[in-house]
Amino acid sequence: MVKNLYDWVLSLAARKSAEVWLAVIAFVESSVFLVPADVLFLPMSLARPQRAYRYAFIATLFSVLGGIAGYGLGYLAYETVAKPILVFYGKLAEFEHLKSCTSNETLLVLLTTSGLAHLPPIKVVTILAGVAQISFVFFLLSCILARGARFFALAWALQTYGEHVRHFIEKRLGMVLGLIAAILIALYFAIKLLAHSGSLSC
Question: How much is the pTM?
Answer without folding.
Answer: 0.74
